Amino acid sequence: MQRPTNDAQLLMLLQADADAGLRAAMQAYAPLLKSICGRVLPHDPQDAEECMADAFVALWRHAAALAGGQVPLRAWLAVTARNAAINRYHRLCRTGTVPLDDGLAETLGELAEFDRTATDKEDAVGALVAAMAPPDRDIFLRRYYLLQPCREIAAALGMTENTVHVRLSRGRERLRRALTHQEATDHAKNL
Question: Average pLDDT by consecutive 10-residue portion of the chain (191 residues)?
Fold first, then answer.
């Protein structure tokens, strides 16, 4: 089979000839996935490469389902690689292998652009969280994106656990008000 020119052909090739399909997928998407995994795991390139490989294995396993779906392949691979890298990061943090990175919030904000499967409302929440001032943005990203416990967040940011809980509660309320206001504005525009 000739070299695929689009994602549908790539998925067909993966199903027909796994080796050729994986080579074509790596040629097309390896730089993107390497960048994503490297941003989440900047301290260990080997871990980043393993996460990238995990994403390609997942692509091979899900090729048939993806062929009939509506999800763009680039977005699916990016999210899969990002999630694999975040899971690896969590495991490394639990074992104390990786220190918390001060630039983690910025990196996670940049990675969020790859998640193209989000609804408009999820996009709005992401934009509102990105617009938060530190440390609230860092707290939200660590809690709801990295799923860190409040105790870890407090230790990483040098505050009490109660302060983290209060900031999360107040931040959720600000998000709720902003989304309600935005929905009312959008509804008024559609009248």
Answer: 70 89 90 86 84 92 83 85 85 62 50 46 68 84 78 88 94 87 71 64
Predicted local distance difference test score (pLDDT) of residue 5: 66
Phi-psi region of 2 (alpha: psi -120 to 50; beta: other; left: phi over 0): beta
Q: What does the DSSP assignment read for 11-51?
A: HHHHHH-HHHHHHHHHHHHHHHHHHHHHHHSTT-HHHHHHH
Q: Where are the beta strands (DSSP E) in 44-185?
A: none
* pTM, full prediction: 0.54
- DSSP string across 53-68: HHHHHHHHHHHHHHHT
**Amino acid, res. 18:** A
44 to 48, 50, 98, 103, 165: CA distances (angstroms)? 7, 10, 9, 16, 32
CB-side exposure of 29: number of CA atoms within 13 Å? 28
User: What single-letter amino acid sits at 96?
Assistant: G
Domains and CATH numbers, the chain: 1-100 (1.10.1740.10), 118-191 (1.10.10.10)
Q: Over the stretch 125-140, which tens digit does the pLDDT of each residue have?
A: 777 777 788 888 888 8
Q: Could you tell me how many helices (H) and strands (E) the chain has, helices first?
A: 9, 0
What is the spatial distance between Cα 141 and Cα 148, in angstroms, rounded to a whole number? 9
Question: What's the token pair of residue 174?
Answer: 């600000």
